[in-house]
Structure formats: structure tokens, C-alpha cells
């Protein structure tokens, strides 16, 4: 009995290499029935949400949008920018790894995608949810 600690590192604000993501998801899947997990990064938003989102997609077949929406209800601000796109890009892969019957569909879909870095995600700037605009007129500084 006690706490098992698993540490995986990748840069804050970035998307994980697939090997790192698989390590985290595998550790979550390996939990004995009835045991809990805590996933955290520096702020508990980006990297945490990316790993939890991948797990939700693989284990429970959430869509990326459903996983992000659910996590943002639980903790506002989770998974922003390139990490949103990364989760969307790996959605089919996570479904295929969770359910072998989806593997062929994923292989057909993923021929020209590169989800081992954020490069593909960064190229999709038009669908990134932008932050709200600053107030007009600007608020005076204290």
C-alpha cells in the first residue's frame, strides 16, 4: 500500500512525444481496480490535460472536443493552443489503440499526419480558440 510515483517530462506548453504519452496512459491503465491516480504538471493545465485527454479518448472513446470540454468544466483553462490540436490529431489513434476494430480506419486517416511533434498542430492557427480581447477602453494600471 502507498503511493506509486511515475514521472515523465516534456516541455511546458508543448505536445508530448507519442512514446511519453503512451507511457503516461499505460501507467493510468495499469492501476488496479478501485485505485486512484493524480496527474499534475507545473500548473496542472496543459501537460496534465493533454495526458488525461488522451486517456479519456483511449479508455472511454471521448472525442477530443468532449475530453477538452469535460476537463474545462472540471478545471477552467485546461488544454489550450497547440495541445487542443494535438488531442484532435491523435483522437483516431487513441480510439484505435483502445479498440482494435478502429485501427484500420485510423491507419487510413493518418497517412499524412505527424503527431510526434506540435508542428502539425501549430499549422492550424485558424481553429485555435483565441483568448478574449482586452477590455475597451483599457483598464488603468494600479
What's the topology here?
Blueprint: H1 18-29, H2 46-60, H3 64-74, H4 82-98, H5 103-109, H6 119-122
Can you tell me about this structure?
The protein is built from six helices and no strands. It has helices spanning 18-29, 46-60, 64-74, 82-98, 103-109, 119-122. The protein is globular, with a radius of gyration of 17 Å. Mean pLDDT is 78; it is low at 111-131. One of its GO terms (molecular function) is protein tyrosine phosphatase activity. Belongs to the protein-tyrosine phosphatase family. Non-receptor class CDC14 subfamily. Residues 22-86 form the Tyrosine specific protein phosphatases domain.
Top keywords for this entry?
single chain, Protein-Tyrosine Phosphatase, Chain A, 142 residues, 6 helices, mainly alpha
Amino acid at each position: 500500500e502507498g503511493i506509486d510515483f511515475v514521472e515523465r517530462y516534456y516541455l511546458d506548453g508543448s505536445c508530448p512525444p507519442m512514446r511519453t504519452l503512451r507511457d503516461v496512459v499505460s501507467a493510468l491503465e495499469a492501476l488496479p481496480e478501485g485505485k486512484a491516480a493524480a496527474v499534475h504538471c507545473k500548473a496542472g493545465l496543459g501537460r496534465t490535460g493533454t495526458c488525461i485527454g488522451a486517456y479519456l479518448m483511449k479508455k472511454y472513446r471521448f472525442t477530443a472536443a468532449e475530453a477538452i470540454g469535460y476537463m474545462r468544466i472540471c478545471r477552467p483553462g485546461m488544454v489550450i493552443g497547440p495541445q487542443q490540436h494535438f488531442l484532435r490529431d491523435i483522437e483516431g489513434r487513441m480510439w484505435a489503440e483502445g479498440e482494435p476494430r478502429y485501427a484500420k480506419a485510423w491507419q487510413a486517416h493518418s497517412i499524412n499526419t505527424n503527431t510526434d511533434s506540435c508542428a502539425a498542430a501549430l499549422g492550424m492557427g485558424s481553429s485555435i480558440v483565441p483568448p478574449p480581447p482586452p477590455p475597451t477602453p483599457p483598464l488603468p494600471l494600479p
